[in-house]
UniProtKB/TrEMBL annotation:
Keyword DNA repair: no
Domain ABC transporter: 23-242
Family membership: Belongs to the ABC transporter superfamily. Macrolide exporter (TC 3.A.1.122) family.
Ranges for region Disordered: 1-20
UniProt cross-references to InterPro entries, sorted A to Z: AAA+_ATPase, ABC_transporter-like_ATP-bd, ABC_transporter-like_CS, ABC_transpr_LolD-like, MacB-like_ATP-bd, P-loop_NTPase
GO cellular component terms listed in the entry, alphabetical order: membrane protein complex; plasma membrane
Keyword RNA-binding belongs to the record: no
Pfam families xref list: ABC_tran
Phylogenetic lineage: Bacteria, Pseudomonadati, Pseudomonadota, Betaproteobacteria, Burkholderiales
Name of the protein in its database record: ABC transport system ATP-binding protein
GO BP: response to antibiotic
Low complexity bias locations: 1-12
Keywords associated with the record: Antibiotic resistance, ATP-binding, Cell membrane, Membrane, Nucleotide-binding, Transmembrane, Transmembrane helix, Transport
Single GO molecular function: transmembrane transporter activity
Amino acid sequence: MSETSAAAAPAASNERMPPESIIAVEHVSKSVTDSTGTLEILRDIDFRLAPRETAAIVGASGSGKSTLLSIIAGLDTPTRGTVRLGGQDLFALDEDDRAALRARQVGFVFQSFQLMGNLTALENVMLPLELAGIRDARRRATDMLERVGLGQRLTHYPKVLSGGEQQRVALARAFVVEPAVLLADEPTGSLDFATGETIMELMLALNREQGTTLVLVTHDRGIAARCDRRITIEAGRLVDNS
């Protein structure tokens, strides 16, 4: 090889390198079979998200949005394809190792809040910190609840909190571990419009502060428009990723 060719080779190689991604969904398909036949839920879904990016998964009811989010989380397994989180192939791991990876890198927010009813707001937010063996869990949980406007509700149980307050606790619980990725499934679906708007503003603000990659499922086009990317699913197929 000539000196000119040798010098040019590294530059050409760099040009072919893909952009950095924290989430890589690689040709994911999901099907289920029962006595009536086989149903394809997802068909060859393929996309990547960069660190700090926000993405909304949108589509009609039954299009496969929540199934896709569950696969990204490693809570459901694809029939074909895989998901890489921070470069790690989720489905090369066993269930225990996937759970450990989620605990380290992923936060969750659900439509139904998923708080522990027998724990106070403070105890709910402390829980993931304690499971991770973090010693100053009480201080960090208190600081995060104050950040979401619930500094006066630390000792209250979920049953005496409003829907908006419960979702604030859920946000505090998700963000207190400073996850690399936050996955949210219809986070405002159980709330009235005004409360939902407040929760979305808070979620996006916390996301910016912590530099988290946010992936949320929503039927609300207004919420989707506030994200960097819209991943549109129709009948299990990716029809738009812009």
